[in-house]
Amino acid sequence: MKLIFEKSVPGRRLSLLPDCDVPVCKLPESLRRTTPIGLPEMSENELSRHYSALERRSFGVNNGFYPLGSCTMKYNPRINDEMSALPGFADIHPLQPVHTVQGALEALALAEQLLCEITGMDHMTFQPAAGAHGELTGILLIKRYHAERGDTERTEIIVPDSAHGTNPATVSMTGMTAVSIESGPDGRVDLDKLKAVVGPKTAGLMLTNPNTLGLFEKDILEITDIIHKAGGLVYYDGANLNAIMGIARPGDMGFDCVHLNLHKTFSTPHGGGGPGSGPVGCKDFLAPYLPRPVVEKEGEGYTLDYERPLSIGRIKTFYGNFAIVLRALTYVLTLGREGIKEASTQAVLNANYMRKKLSECYDIAYDYTCMHEFVMTLSGLKKEKGITAADIAKALIDRGIHPPTMYFPLIVPEALMIEPVETESKETMDEAIEALLDIYKVACADPESLHAAPLTTPVGRVDETAAARHPKLRYEG
C-alpha cells in the first residue's frame, strides 16, 4: 500500500473553499513559512479511499476478539458518544463565564460523586489526561503532603516488581526514588520483604489490586497498615479496577489516593482513539493539594475554585478531557449500581473460564483463581520446541484475533497475558480457546511453521526491535 505522500499529484485539489467573508489579516514576513508546508495533494475521492484502505488494515474491538491483558479493550457503547456530542456539551468553550456552563459543571460534579462512591474516595480531579498522568498527579499529592508536614526526608516510593512499568517511571519524574520489592512465591506482595524496606524514608507505596498477574492481594489490609504505621501513604493504580468495581473499593482497603483509567474501566475510547483520561481521587486530608481549579457547589449552582494555596498547581490546561468524562459518566449512569457490579463479575468469570480451558495445554504462571486476567508462560514450550510467546501471538493474527500482551509482566518468562473482558460472549471466547489450542498442537507437531507467522496479513513479521529503536516518523520522498 502506498503512503499518502506517494499518491500525491502536484496541483490536485481536495475541495473548493468559499470566498472569505471577513477581512484578511496577513502575517508579518518574520512569521511566514519560507518552505512549502509539504502536504499531499489529492482529490476528496482519493483521500476517502486511502483512509478506508487504512481502516481495513487496522484492528479494533469492532473487528474481533481483543484480549490485550491489563488494558481492558472492551466495547464502547455508542450512546456515550451521543451524549458527549450534545450541543450543550460539545459547543461550549472553556473560557465561557461560569454561569453559562452550569450544566457542564454539574456533570463534572456528578461524575466526581459517582466515581468517588465506586472507589471509596472523598474528592476527585479530572485534569489528568491519561493513566500515567494520573500516576504523576497522585504521587505529587503524596510528595506535597509530606512536604507540608516538614517530613522532607521521605523520598522513597515502594513499587512491587509486578507493577506496571509506568509506576517506577512516575516516581522518578517526581524526583523521588523507587524501591522495588520482589513478589512472593504466590505472585503477591511478600510481607516480610515489604517490612524490610519500610522506614523513615518511606513516602508511600504504589500498588495495583488485583495486581498485574491478575491476582487479588489477599493481605491488602495488612499491606496498607504496614505503610501507614511507617508514616507513608498508599497509592492505588486503577488500571485493574475493572475486576472489582461495585464489589470492593480501594478506599476501604486503606488506599489514600487513586487514579482511574476511564478508557479501561469505564468504556471510553482507548489508545489512538482517545484522548484518554486519568482522574485522581483522594481522601479528605489530601484534598487541599489537588490541582486547581476544582468544581464546588455554590448555592443552587456550581463554581470553580481557583483559590487553593496548597494546590500542586495545574496538571493540564482547563479541566481535563471533558468529553471523555461525559462518556464515562454516561456508562456509569447506564449501568447503575447493579450493572457496574455485574460488569466486573462477568469480567472475572470470563477470565477464569478461559484460564481453566487453556490450562489443558498451556502452563499458567500462577494457576489460582484469577480476577480479570491471567498470565501464561511459554518457557516450557520454548525449551522443548523453540516456540516463543511471540510465535503464539503472531499465529493468532492469522486467525483473526488480536494478540494478547506479550512478555509482560517481566517476572514471568515468555509471558502471554490474556484479558477477555465482560463484553465478550462465551461463543467468542470458545473460538479463541479453540484457536489457541490448535496453535499449541501445531507448535508441537510443526514448530517451524509458526516462526514466519503471520502469513495472511499485508505485512508479515516485522523487526519490532529496530522499529522501536530506529523509528521512521517522517516521509523523505
Descriptive report:
It is a single chain. With 477 residues, the chain is an alpha/beta fold. It folds into 3 domains: 1-14 and 39-58, no CATH class; 78-334, 3-Layer(aba) Sandwich (Aspartate Aminotransferase, domain 2); 342-469, Aspartate Aminotransferase, domain 1, CATH 3.90.1150. 36% of the residues lie in helices and 11% in strands. The strands form 3 sheets. A 7-stranded mixed β-sheet has the order 1-7-6-5-4-2-3, sandwiched between helices. Strands 10-11-13-12 form a 4-stranded antiparallel β-sheet, covered by helices on one side. α4 (102-119) runs parallel beside α11 and α5 crosses α6 (166-173). The longest helix is centred in the C-terminal third of the chain and has 37 residues, at 322-358. The radius of gyration is 25 Å and the shape is globular. The two termini are 15 Å apart.
SSE inventory with pairings:
Elements: H1 44-57, H2 78-84, H3 87-90, H4 102-119, E1 123-125, H5 131-148, E2 156-160, H6 166-173, E3 177-181, H7 191-197, E4 202-207, H8 220-229, E5 233-238, H9 250-253, E6 257-260, H10 262-265, E7 280-282, E8 294-298, E9 301-305, H11 322-358, E10 363-364, E11 374-377, H12 379-385, H13 389-397, E12 405-406, E13 415-418, H14 426-445, H15 464-469
Parallel strand pairs: 2-3, 2-4, 4-5, 5-6
Antiparallel strand pairs: 1-7, 6-7, 8-9, 10-11, 11-13, 12-13
Helix pairs in contact: 2-11, 4-11, 5-6, 11-14
